[in-house]
Design goal:
heterodimer; A: 346 residues; alpha/beta; Rossmann fold; 6-stranded parallel beta sheet; two-stranded antiparallel sheet; 47% helix; globular; B: 345 residues; 2 domains; 7-stranded mixed beta sheet; 5-stranded mixed beta sheet; 14 helices; 14 strands; 36% helix; 20% strand; Transketo_C/PFOR_II (chain B); Transketolase-like_Pyr-bd (chain B); Alpha-ketoacid dehydrogenase subunit beta (chain B)
Amino acid sequence: MSTTRTPRASASRSRSRSRPDRQAAHRRDLLHGMLRVRRFEERCVELYSEARIRGFMHLCIGEEAVAVGVTEALTADDAVVSTYREHGHALARGVPADAVMAEMFGKVTGCSRGRGGSMHLFDAGRRFYGGNAIVGGGLPLAAGLALADRMTGRPRVTCCFFGDGAFAEGEFHETANLAALWGLPVLFVCENNLYAMGTALSRHQAQTDLALRAAAYGMVSWAVDGMDAAAVEDAARRAVEGVRAGSGPHFLEMRTYRFRAHSMYDSDRYRDKAEIERWRERDPVELLARLMRERGELPDETLTGLEDEVRAEIDDAVRAAEQAPEEPVEDLLTYVTSPPAEVNRP
Amino acid sequence: MTATKTPHADPAERKTTYREALREALRDALRADDRVFLMGEDVGRYGGCFGVSLGLLEEFGPDRIRDTPLSESAFVGAGIGAALGGLRPIVEIMTVNFSLLALDQILNNAATLLHMSGGQLPVPIVIRMTTGAGRQLGAQHSHSLEGWYAHIPGLRVLAPATIADARHLLAPALADPDPVLIFEHGGLYNTSGDLPADAGPVGLGQAAVRRPGTDVSLITYGGSLPKALTAADELAGGGISAEVVDLRSLRPLDDATISDSVARTHHAVVVDEAWRSGSLSAEISARLTEHNFYDLDAPVERVCSAEVPMPYARRLEEAALPQPGTIVAAARRAVGDAPDDGRAD
């Protein structure tokens, strides 16, 4: 798999620069990270329409600032638990684009060896615990990962992404209580895109102020403009700092919006087109690009360079996925159970 | 995982109970491996809803004997996450009926993550729970749903029926890299008997012949084992030699031991406290048809619970459950020693 240029790697390269330069370079990295996710998913749509990607596929287009901004605040030792709308989380976390694309193609080189698909991306080495397609199902896992860190004295944070729909699930409330009760080092990141599949927040929640409700569990909680990558990153850094310092779980409500339908099967009948257009005016990629232009940090050739770099990475990923072998059918039952312990365990 | 030590080897055969044997196994596991901890509702201060973990809090402290809120999904899922995070959790669920609140975590995560992640995420968790009826606890504390779990690829399902198995199945379960569910029949906790000094750790996935016989195989597990043994005594009095096979492992099933027994006896009775429709007894019967069709001299008999939510009243509950008498009758029918007009539908 090719080495992927992650925003973090770029940030470390910029350390020797002066502070304004560093900030400009960092904004460029954020923009690059969001463009990667945006263009990757746009390519996925094309591939889906060509039937080269199948199954359910959920896009996070419009929500890129959350994935990229939050991931910026984590270290490589921290863990990420995600949902079925996780292409952005995986890419931002550093799962190579070709491993993600190969997974979409169902190839053996995919990050789940073709057994997961779009909804089940995993990368144990990067502590990316994926890809949970049961709404709310990943939250208890996050509490457990954090519990293991707590019990072994490791100063790590587990970041758990989920949507506003999870607020209606018992698993959210059970886990919020457990994590707060035990002071577990979890960062709960609710991507409130205002819809649980096709049901608007106001139609599925009696109290729509999600941060307020999370606070009721005794967690430090606040709402963030999820379309502003810098605001997301800033909030995530403060929250991660608090979690790592031992002040228990923190909760961030990221107010965001998905520009595309819930999945490729969704004809989007439940939303007002004008509403979508209003949110598009706050496109997180455009928002950051506009700011950078205003500051003179984004000459046309820079943006072109970023777009070229992203396109080349995705082209490579698609080409590699096309050429990659399928898992042999003889291996169908592999990984249902582990090989004998002495072989499997160091 | 390193081999589990047994720091306090039993000096000789001695009297104990199923409950105490489970507790000793827990104590050993907690002493042998710092990664092991016990978590569940009332496992600590209360001592376990059935008293299994009584005294462990005092020895191991609240971090490792961890009381949880009544949040089956959250604490089972947290156990799965802790296993992913490098620990070796033992999660106790009060009864199998309550485990349905955690079914999402058990099926969609514990059983699934290894395969769905392409082999990256083994889940070394042990989940213990009580199963079964016989104590007048009504329809929400008494069912035998272990067969549902035995349906699920990726899980290992154990049902210790003897004191020795209560004592010795936990260590290999913890050593297994995959999720293991242990079903403890509520009627067995007070069983007392001898714990043999030489009964070391047993292999997972192996059935045991508890009583050899030549005329009919009584195939059973868990809380039905004592009933099957009682039935075998009675059958012996009537000149029928019954072999009693204790499955111990409900997934995977030890096809070889089951099949070998029936190949010798040519008659089979499956005794399973679960309902018969779509049950483990149906699975075993189907496998006997696949593996032993030409060995069988008679149709496979099944003794299961009546298809009713478990009633409270003693007479009704007893009537709903397999009993030595119904097992004897089924065995007699199988060997042609009784008119078959009493066969269940």
